[in-house]
Design a protein that fits this description.
4-stranded antiparallel β-sheet; Alpha-Beta Plaits; two-stranded antiparallel sheet; alpha+beta
Length: 230
């Protein structure tokens, strides 16, 4: 029998009735968040700045082409470092080479290697006997990744919230298929072997309505009181 106060909103009653289910799903969500954090550790990043110097343009000459564009080297560099490396223009002839890797030391190592490769590729661009050049403007610096503890806690909380929401949705969906009927008077209880008077009877929403059950019971009572023939 439902012991919750009748004036409480139905939503609150449902949550109270299925609080164990909701808590269990929230706990499972938190565990999934911890597992996800363990399998996806935070990545460190490193950045270096390189300045590009184009060949000297002779007086009266028409200068242009790859040897005068710092962005021309970027596709070649990305082929050499396809994973976690980005090349972006900063201002004028200065480009930024950023790297994301598992550790700060590895990120700095790859960033410095990419910068040296950029300098080599820039020196291979000829223009009328002259070559472009490049040099490191700012050595590679690393940014600290989020601490693993913060990531684990954040993913666990996110998983718990999502799990609780799923539990609430499941509870609401399950409550739509079962209703509590009002207490029936003696003689109207339905069930195998009968029920004691005053006990609530639970019906599925697909079963007969209470009015139909009462009508059938009245018909059975009338048939039992019919006088016997002869």
């Amino acid at each position: 029998m439902n012991q919750q106060a009748p004036d409480l909103p139905r939503f609150v009653q449902i949550i109270g009735r299925y609080r164990s289910l909701i808590g269990l799903v929230a706990l499972l969500g938190a565990l999934v968040g911890v597992l996800f954090a363990a399998l996806n550790p935070p990545a460190s990043s490193s950045q270096t700045l390189v300045v590009f110097t184009a060949p000297t343009c002779p007086a009266g000459g028409i200068c242009g082409g790859p040897a005068f564009s710092p962005a021309f080297i970027a596709p070649t560099l990305l082929k050499q470092f396809p994973n976690g490396v980005q090349v972006k223009p900063v201002t004028g002839d200065v480009v930024s080479i950023s790297v994301a890797a598992g550790t700060a030391a590895r990120a700095e190592l790859i960033a410095n290697a990419a910068a040296r490769s950029y300098i080599v590729d820039a020196g291979a661009l000829p223009y009328m006997g002259e070559y472009a050049s490049a040099q490191i403007l700012q050595p590679a610096t690393s940014a600290a990744a989020p601490t693993p503890l913060k990531q684990v806690v954040g993913d666990a909380l996110l998983g718990a919230v999502l799990g609780a929401l799923l539990g609430i949705i499941a509870a609401l969906a399950g409550s739509q298929t079962i209703i509590d009927s009002p207490t029936l008077s003696r003689g109207l209880d339905v069930g195998a072997g009968g029920r004691e008077a005053g006990q609530p009877t639970r019906y599925a929403t697909t079963h007969l309505s209470l009015q139909q059950l009462a009508r059938e019971d009245a018909q059975r009572r009338a048939a039992s009181y019919r006088p016997l023939d002869g």
